[in-house]
């Protein structure tokens, strides 16, 4: 996981980490304050990126950043959004706008209890099959590629 809020790195350093993920054929998990880093990775590499917290911070929820992340997920085939550390209204917005195919369940434990995070997914307007996609099938499919 790269986290530009905790670990200071340049855009070039982030791209090099992403290149390493591509070589290893694993997704890049990213918590990014600076979306220009995300854009650079998505535009330069054919790499799956999982953006933590729907693109916002656990303790600084910013709906405008979630909107930006959702817009990027709509246009980039390789971007997925992690549901950890967010609120029900933001998760509902993401589910409605990008669909369950682009969401990956996360809890951000130990900061958030996994049961609480799971209950948020259960309250989304999703079928059982769609909840299964979000909770495990999407990630299973991505890791099997």
Automatic annotation (TrEMBL):
Top-level taxonomic group: Archaea
Positions of the Amidohydrolase-related domain: 16-138
Gene Ontology MF terms in the entry: hydrolase activity
Lineage: Archaea, Methanobacteriati, Methanobacteriota, candidate division MSBL1
InterPro entries: Amidohydro-rel, Metal_Hydrolase
Gene3D superfamilies: Metal-dependent hydrolases
Name under which the protein is recorded: Amidohydrolase-related domain-containing protein
């Amino acid at each position: 996981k790269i986290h530009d809020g905790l670990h200071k790195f340049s855009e070039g350093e982030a791209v090099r980490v992403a290149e390493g993920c591509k070589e290893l054929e694993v997704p890049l998990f990213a918590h990014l304050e600076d979306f220009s880093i995300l854009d650079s990775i998505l535009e330069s590499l054919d790499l799956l990126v999982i953006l933590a917290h729907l693109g916002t911070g656990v303790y600084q929820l910013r709906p405008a950043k979630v909107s930006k992340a959702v817009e990027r997920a709509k246009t980039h085939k390789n971007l997925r959004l992690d549901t950890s550390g967010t609120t029900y209204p933001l998760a509902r917005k993401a589910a409605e706008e990008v669909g369950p195919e682009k969401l990956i369940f996360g809890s951000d434990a130990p900061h958030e209890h996994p049961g609480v995070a799971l209950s948020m997914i259960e309250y989304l307007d999703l079928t059982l099959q769609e909840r299964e996609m979000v909770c495990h099938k999407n990630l299973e499919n991505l890791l099997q590629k």
